[in-house]
Amino acid sequence: MNAGLSILTYNFTYENPGFYDVVVSAYNYVSNVTKSQAVGVYEAIVDVDISGNSTIRVPPGLGTWRISAGPDQAPLDDIVCVWNMGSNYADTSYSVAMLNESTPHEVEFTYDRADTGTSQTISVNCSNAVSSQNFTMDVEVIWDNVTLGQLDCDNSTLWIPAPRRQSLSTVPTPCPARISRWTSRLSGTTSPLVSWPVITQHCGIIR
User: Fold this and answer.
1) Based on the structure, what is the number of domains in the chain?
2) What is the pLDDT of residues 183-196, one digit of tens each?
């Protein structure tokens, strides 16, 4: 304790994080004054990291990412984490009441079809009154949906060349496709042949 003419300095070390009321009283023979002040004690953010999906398939485009505390990180209370999920996305702030080894901070986010074919960089800043850390992670957004055209059918018959290419055989199908009439020189006749590879007995054209 160091005393001067008008300043008194007192040093104290808190052992646990939390909020404390510091009360100081000063008095002499003729007066008595008491003052108080709230003090917040925080753990520093020193050992946390980001993890989660490195590839997102659209649809559905949903992914999960987390901020986790490492073995050298003391439990953190009341921190704020600001997430940015990539280009064209605004920051989103989360109040995290508790972060420790068994309780990570998780967020979910859905990327849009317009993001497919891009690499998005997720940026996170976690902070409290005494410390701050930044994290980044790259995410590939992939289009993962196959759309088939409408099956267009009529009342025609599908004709398929015989295996030895000596004659033509007829295979009726439950839903014949729209076909083109070609001239077959194998048998000297004009026969309709499908103009798209036949994959199953149900013929169709994928457009």
Assistant:
1) 3
2) 333 334 444 444 44
